[in-house]
Specification:
3 domains, five-stranded antiparallel beta sheet, four-stranded mixed beta sheet, 16 strands
């Protein structure tokens, strides 16, 4: 979760790229006598997420100790939630998109529960040596558990993509998988067609990308099919496997633990939590538009499925689009500048959206086009240089002398020169060939290196003729 501090202490929650064991304190490293204190911001963000998932937020809940021993868990147990989670129920509707970017089918996956817990540290294995970094220990986590409603790897990937959009939309997490902010434990089991009984499952731990989720599920499905054929029966008990990304295969870790193995009991150092109805409704009222609603809005503007999802998946890109849309009132124009021109130039320069022009700089460019300082075609060139050199539109226009010629007297003189230099085109136009006018306007634009206002050139030329 993207809180400033950890779940139960005041340590900085942003440990990415920090030297090992520098963002720690006696609380998150489990020193005897230290007492945890719950992060109110984390709880509020979790409630926002639960409401966005259409879950029912429990007015009363508490934390539990989940016991297991591992070197990255300094307490010797995890502070989690078991029988009284923060929220229960809910559902996510998601679309399967085909290769052409169109919706192939729509599905729904039910949510079982959402509960809070703290993260463990990070282990780095070097030969026979293991290094422990506890910077991440104590990071607030939401664990979202689903019902067995997903029937394929495609559905699983589409589901978590939609879930990620919701998490970003409600500002509960940046869900940056490169930084380990979103991970998946995927359970898979097989059953005979026509039966409803769920057989024992294989749980694939700690998948950290959409691609690894898809590959791991496809691999484990095939492995379980072969195992069933060999043994003439499904798995006899639940198991836990790990995914080896480099080898693209799973590895048996252990038999799956049960709740009894974890010896849950209420966390004695944290009091029960209570929210009243007004608290919950206040959070509900602050929810932003749901990604599904945003998609419908953008598609109503004329954007296609791919463009709508680009805006939803990238909040900064969406902010740029919304700023230009608010200024111009033209969604097609805003989409062309942001989704076609800007993204194209950023990709060419191998830059991210946050490394490109900000909203104010794009507005400056838009004003320069709208007030006739430069033409729309010049605007594309200016935007490309803004991305390339990190300069403002005003700086580039001034440096390269791109101010558009829009003075009537200056354009009249250029038109007269064009008429004198293009007698055949003038004759063709007078004989009814409208296209010949474009050639004369093009001559003016070439002579002025694109600085003449083409609309005004065309108007004056027609008056002159």
């Amino acid at each position: 979760m993207n809180t400033k501090t950890k779940m139960f202490c005041a340590c900085d929650n942003d440990a990415f790229g920090k030297p090992p064991n520098t963002q720690i304190c006696p609380i998150c490293t489990g020193h005897p006598g230290s007492l945890p204190s719950p992060n109110a911001a984390a709880m509020t963000k979790a409630i926002r997420t639960a409401l966005a998932l259409e879950s029912t937020v429990s007015t009363d809940c508490h934390f539990d100790r989940k016991h297991y021993f591992y070197p990255d868990l300094p307490y010797g147990f995890q502070i989690s939630q078991y029988d009284f989670p923060l929220a229960k129920g809910g559902a996510i509707e998601f679309d399967i998109i085909d290769a052409s970017g169109n919706v192939r089918s729509t599905h729904t996956c039910r949510i079982t529960r959402l509960h809070m817990e703290n993260d463990a540290g990070k282990l780095t294995h070097r030969g026979r040596t293991t290094l422990c970094d506890y910077n991440r220990a104590g990071t607030p986590l939401m664990e979202i558990v689903t019902e067995p409603d997903l029937r394929s790897a495609d559905e699983a990937v589409a589901f978590v993509q939609e879930l990620r959009r919701i998490l970003i939309a409600v500002n509960a997490s940046e869900a940056d998988m490169f930084k380990g902010m979103m991970r998946f434990d995927a359970s898979i089991s097989l059953r005979e067609k026509g039966t409803k009984t769920l057989n024992p499952r294989s749980e694939i731990k700690n998948l950290n990308s959409f691609k690894s989720l898809e590959k791991a599920l496809l691999y484990e499905e095939e492995r379980l099919r072969k195992l069933w054929q060999e043994q003439e029966c499904p798995l006899s008990h639940n198991i836990t496997v790990g995914w080896l990304d480099d080898e693209e295969k799973t590895k048996m870790l252990r038999e799956k633990e049960t709740a009894d193995d974890y010896r849950y009991f209420p966390e004695p150092d944290l009091p029960p939590l209570h929210w009243n109805h007004d608290d919950i409704e206040k959070v509900r009222a602050s929810l932003p538009p749901h990604p599904h609603a945003l998609k419908k809005r953008y598609q109503a503007f004329g954007l296609n499925e791919k463009q709508a999802l680009q805006l939803i998946d990238q909040p900064l890109l969406r902010s740029l689009f919304e700023t230009l849309l608010s200024h111009s009132g033209d969604a097609k124009r805003a989409g062309s500048i942001v989704l076609t021109q800007l993204l194209g130039f950023l990709n060419t320069q191998e830059k991210t959206v946050d490394e490109g022009p900000n909203a104010d700089q794009l507005l400056e460019l838009l004003h320069a086009i709208d007030d006739g300082t430069i033409s729309a075609n010049q605007g594309k060139d200016v935007l490309e240089k803004m991305v390339q050199f990190g300069k403002s539109a005003g700086e580039i226009i001034a440096q390269e002398g791109l101010q558009q010629i829009s003075d009537d007297g200056a354009i009249m003189r250029l038109v007269e020169q064009a008429i004198a230099a293009n007698p055949k085109a003038i004759e063709s136009y007078k004989n009814g060939k409208e296209a010949a006018l474009g050639a004369i306007v093009g001559w003016v634009m070439k002579e002025t290196k694109g600085q003449a206002d083409p609309k005004k050139v065309s108007e004056i030329l027609q008056e002159k003729l």
